[in-house]
Write a structure and sequence with these properties.
about 475 residues; Immunoglobulin-like; Rossmann fold; 11-stranded mixed beta sheet; 4-stranded antiparallel beta sheet; about 25% strand; elongated
């Protein structure tokens, strides 16, 4: 009996030693069949193996070799490649060999956020009859047939390495059902413009605040504002800092991407926070860029939609102006380089619906921002009228805008709505607003000496003020106390 136990122990030790010596090469889940690799950038390929194991990666005429480090980790970087829609295979060889099939080279975007980004393709069809003037998409769930669009859906519990390498799918049929509608329609339009393969990674969680998407250590800071005021540490707001970052973002690093799309904020808006959110948002953008070792990665986001927050029974009371204040905190991120924002105040059927359904139009507008900024198509108008400056002229206020496109107009041909002005008493009165060229003249007989002007400064505001490209004006207040805080 003793000899048998000793024999079993010796065999166990030998088996353990053998496994350590001849461990198999393993890949993260993001590296798999059907993936799209980012064009014109170096492309990291990485994984684990035995300490000192020799790994060779071969793809499209390139062959890179590396030894696994003392922790068993390894990485090679493929040289930048031109876009290619020709399916190719990648071979990763160590003590075992992995062959990944059907790989393309093109543009890769990571989209993240909460439920409105997670909002799946299976849901959008409910809104096809409610066009509000926006052409609804075709039935992509049944008719999509573009093999050059690939999708990867990050699932919270399934990001550990596996032997199937099957995380990526062609964007058609069953895999498309659960994928982000915003992400898919962004990809569909981007392909139509660029004619190169598009890869979309969706990593979003319904109801999530921003804190779980940020590495916990990055929130352990107390921002100092330009006026010298020091805020309480961002980590003081709790809500599991880093929870989704650890499981749904970190496993993707350093997969080569073109940029980020972000649609989140409703859960934080319920907390009636604004400036603190601005600093958290800044932290997320800068820390993600740092993770990918590129402080110029494009980051484009959605300004959340009108919603009746003031009627919520949250522990923190709301007024109709709290949402505009949150919109303002979102726009502060535009002070960071290579950022862009879309406004969707017009894409709401009911302000008691937290999930407006026109996701194809959201994807379209994000695509306009990407084309204009990331792909340098400066002829593309990507934003509605945006406040630039104001000038008091007698009893009126003259407002000048950027992003006027081919001119300012009213969507329905009626007088512009949701403008208000105030005198020195700060009592805002609904005002008449008249377009004169690329300016708007605002006045009210009840305000003889106007001082400030506001537009769309209400959670219910769905104004008819647009540019001739059909994009809605961005809500603003000329008395913005946070114009420059970073």
């Amino acid at each position: 009996m003793i000899l048998k136990k000793r024999w079993f122990l010796s065999l166990s030790i030998l088996f353990s030693f053998t496994v350590n010596l001849f461990g198999e090469v393993s890949l993260p889940k993001i590296l798999g069949h059907n993936m799209v690799l980012q064009r014109l950038k170096s492309v990291p390929i990485w994984g684990t193996a035995d300490k000192g194991e020799k790994i060779t990666v071969t793809f499209e005429g390139q062959s890179k070799t590396v030894l696994a480090n003392d922790s068993g980790k390894w990485m090679v970087k493929l040289n930048p490649m031109e876009a290619s829609a020709v399916p190719r295979k990648m071979t990763i060889k160590g003590t075992n060999t992995i062959v990944l099939q059907n790989i393309l080279v093109g543009e890769v975007w990571l989209c993240s956020g909460q439920s409105n980004m997670e909002y799946a393709m299976r849901k959008y069809s409910d809104y096809k009859s409610k066009t509000k003037g926006y052409k609804p998409p075709e039935d992509d769930l049944n008719n999509a047939n573009n093999t050059n669009i690939r999708i990867f859906l990050v699932r919270r519990k399934y990001m550990s390495p596996d032997s199937t390498h099957a995380g990526w799918d062609v964007a058609m049929g069953r895999p498309l059902v659960d994928f982000s509608a915003v992400g898919y329609f962004f990809a569909k339009e981007l392909y139509a413009k660029l004619h190169v393969p598009i890869g979309m990674i969706s990593s979003a969680v319904p109801g999530s605040r921003i804190e779980p998407w940020i590495e916990a250590s990055k929130l352990d800071t107390a921002p100092k504002m330009k006026n010298g005021e020091v805020l309480e540490k961002l980590s003081a707001d709790g809500d599991d800092p880093g929870k989704f970052y650890n499981t749904m973002i970190q496993p993707l690093i350093p997969f080569s991407i073109k940029g980020f799309l972000w649609y989140q904020g409703e859960s934080n808006c319920f907390l009636n926070e604004n400036i603190r959110y601005a600093y958290k948002f800044k932290t997320l953008i800068e820390s993600w860029r740092n993770d990918w070792e590129n402080d110029k990665l494009p980051f484009y986001f959605v300004q959340i939609a009108p919603f009746n927050y003031s009627a919520s029974k949250d522990v923190r009371p709301h007024t109709p102006e709290n949402l505009p204040e949150f919109w303002e905190s979102q726009t502060l991120a535009l002070q960071l380089p290579n950022t862009g924002m879309i406004t969707i105040t017009d894409l709401v059927d009911s302000i008691v619906d937290l999930h407006p359904g026109y996701k194809w139009e959201v994807g379209h507008r994000l695509n306009l921002v990407a084309l204009h900024n990331a792909y340098d198509q400066k002829n593309v108008v990507c934003s509605g009228p945006t406040y630039q400056k104001m000038k008091i002229v007698g009893k009126t206020i003259e407002v000048t805008f950027t992003n006027t496109g081919n001119g300012l107009t009213s969507r329905d041909g009626k007088p512009l709505t949701w403008f208000s002005i105030a005198g020195s008493d700060d009592k805002f009165i609904p005002a008449t607003a008249v377009i004169e060229g690329n300016k708007v003249i605002v006045s009210s007989p009840d305000v003889l000496h106007p001082v400030t002007v506001r537009f769309g400064w209400n959670e219910s505001a769905q104004s008819n003020f647009i540019n001739k490209e059909g994009l809605p004006a961005v809500p603003f207040r000329s008395d913005n106390p946070w114009e420059k805080i970073f």
